[in-house]
Each structure stands twice: as structure tokens, then as C-alpha cells.
Amino acid sequence: MRLKLAVFDFDSTLMDGETIDFLATPLGLKDKVAAITEMAMRGELDFFESLIMRVKLLEGLEEKKVDEICHNLPFMPGAKEVIDALKKKGVRVVVFSGGFKNATSYAREVLGFDADFSNILHSKNGVLTGLVGGEMMFSNSKGEMLKRLQTLLNVNKEETMVVGDGANDLSMFEWADRRVAFCAKDVLKKAANIVIDKKDLREILKEIKW
After folding, report:
1. DSSP class per residue in 61-125
2. pLDDT of residue 68
3. Helix, strand or coil for residue 8?
4. Which of 2, 54, 60, 150 is most buried, judging by how many CB atoms fall within 10 Å of its CB?
5. DSSP code of 169?
6. Domain boundaries, the chain
7. Average pLDDT for consecutive 10-residue bins of the chain (210 residues)?
8. How far apart are CA 149 and CA 208, in angstroms?
9. Torsion angle (degrees, nearest 10) of CA 190, 192, 193, 196
10. Distance (Å, whole) CA 108 – CA 11
11. Residue 145 and residue 54: Cα distance in Å, rounded?
12. Comparing C-alpha atoms, which of 158, 138, 160 is closest to residue 149?
């Protein structure tokens, strides 16, 4: 059946790395945050709990520094090309991220996908408070949002492709016939029917049966 909807994770999928690890770097907390991120992506730690723990460590970071970092994140090789190719075929391309609007909204302008759903870092007087809220807070958030999107767009499971790398992408895998594990953790590879270990998103185009 023709592909109509493609949903990509952002961190370590469209972007080469984890946004929150980059944000923790100027605070000298990259290793501490990265260790929590890694546990969450392997499915060893509840995603919501890990998000709250990590964002709390960002308290005191200036908002302008957050934007500066988020506007200079390295995109994954082939990110722009795969999105352009999908859109030329009339596919709606959407990003679901347990990361943050500062990064995903900017990436939407650069990469040209249709919409982004992510979380918001709370700030006060131009400084992060260590609090977070938003659309992708829980381990099942991506699956729930995908179901809603499919209903709104009148798209079914057979017409949907999802692409991710970590445990918090599992919930959307059950709602798509094309399930791509991209340079992924083992927990996600087991649920995928397309596994790509080369760090080039253009590899996805070879796997799609249009």
C-alpha cells in the first residue's frame, strides 16, 4: 500500500546525538546526563523519570544559550535528502521527539518536515527552571500521538512508516507497517522489520516499496 505518513524520531535519528547531552555540556554535566539518557534509550529506565531527572540538571542555563546550542546541532547524514524525497512522493513527514521545541522547530525550518511534536523547557527571566512539560513526556506518548495523527489525516497502519533508535520509539512501532530501527538499541531492533546500521538516512529510501 502507498506510503502516506512518515514519522521520525529526532535525537540520534534526524540529529546526530542527543539534544539534552549538548545542553548539559556548558554546565559540565554532559557525562552525567548522557549516562541517564543511555539507560532510558536502552529501556532500563522509565522515560518520564529520566526526562525529569535530566532536565532538573539543566536548571540555571540561560535560554539564549539553549537556542544557540539547538540552532547548531549536527543533522544526521542524509536527513534533508530523505525528507525531500519523501515529500516529493506526497508523503507527510512529521517529527516526534522526547527532546525540545527549541531544537525541533528550528530543524523543521531547515529540513522542511511538516510538523513537530516535542517538549518545552520551562524558563523564568530568561533562565531554565529545571522544569519541563509538553507532548512527548512519557514512554507511550509517541504511540498515542501517532494514533491521533492517523485519525486526523485518515491514514492507516499500512500507509505509515516510523523511524527511531531508542526504547521510547517502541510505542509508535505497533501502529506502523514499516518499522525502521536506525542505528538503534537492541530493544528497538527486535520490534523493527527494517534495520539500518549505516549512519546515512538515505538508506531508508532503498527499503521502501513505493
Report:
1. -BHHHHHHHHTTPPBPTTHHHHHHHHHHTT-EEEEEEEEEHHHHHHHHHHH--SEEEEEEEEEET
2. 98
3. strand
4. 54
5. G
6. 5-207
7. 95 97 96 92 91 97 98 98 98 97 98 98 98 96 98 97 96 97 96 97 90
8. 21
9. -100
10. 14
11. 23
12. 160
Place of cell 528550528: 106
Task: Indicate which residue of 9, 21, 116, 169 is catalytic.
Answer: 9
182's enclosing H/E stretch is strand 178-182
Catalytic (active site) residue 84: no
Written as nine digits, the cell of 120 is 518545552
CATH superfamily ID and name for 5-207: HAD superfamily/HAD-like (3.40.50.1000)
* pTM given for the model: 0.95
Question: How is residue 96 written as a grid cell?
Answer: 516526534
Does the annotation count 11 as an active-site position? Answer: yes
What lies within 8 Å, CB to CB, of 190 at 6+ separation is none
> Which residue among the candidates 11, 21, 116, 169 is catalytic per the annotation?
11
> 3-class DSSP state for residue 40?
helix
Interhelix angle for 47-56 vs 30-41, to 10°? 170
